[in-house]
Fold:
Amino acid sequence: MMDTAATNPREARLAMRRGAWTGPTTYKVPGYVQCNLVALPKAYAYDFLVYCQRNREACPIVDITDPGDVVPRYAAPDADLRTDLPRYRVFQNGTLVDEPTDVTRYWREDAVAFLIGSSLTFDEPLRRIGVELSPEVWVLETSLPTRPAGPFAGPLIVTMRYFTPEDAIRAVQLTARFPWNHGPPIHLGSPEAIGANLQAPLVGPPVTSLPSDKIPVFWACGVTPQSSALNAGIEWMITHSPGHGFITDLQADHFSQP
Structure:
């Protein structure tokens, strides 16, 4: 179910809160910064923060809550992170146990929530300059390692879109203005060069072939820290469901470089 009438972040979050929007946020509520969510116990927060600092392309931090606080006071001060995403994932000891639309009953008093910039933010700016957006945004695991911190480690996860060569150049130039939403691509061209298997994406349908006039373009992805936390096997973690981001009040054009 999705409330497609929501035209601003607050309307969208309230629709999610009442369960009227449970679908993806890809290409929705354009013009505002979208974020990925990772909430974990305070005991792991420092190591996770260091992991994000060491892997900034994948983990650009937009906001961090105080322990137990459910309000992202910088990104959306009237929001509730337990209810205002369309779908979540709940993990225990590294195992997915639920994918609810409300995580109030799972939230812990020692939870620290990290909002990590999402590449879904720059799709609207790309569209505005005339770049033809690909029909999907794929999420893929690569063979590229991230820099570990404490128990957090693992491969780089990427998003993939495809463009004409001309649009790919324009996409590189524009997305470089959005360092808090992954910045410019980490790779263009052959997916094999980064160990990305298009036939086994984490999100999106398998890709058996690309259009002959398009090339794949890969950005570091905010699912990377989720993957690192799963590898760590920590006892409790809540994340967004891939493609189901948190829509902030921050305007994308103002949350970028000139």
About this structure: The chain has a mean pLDDT of 93. The chain has five helices and eleven strands.
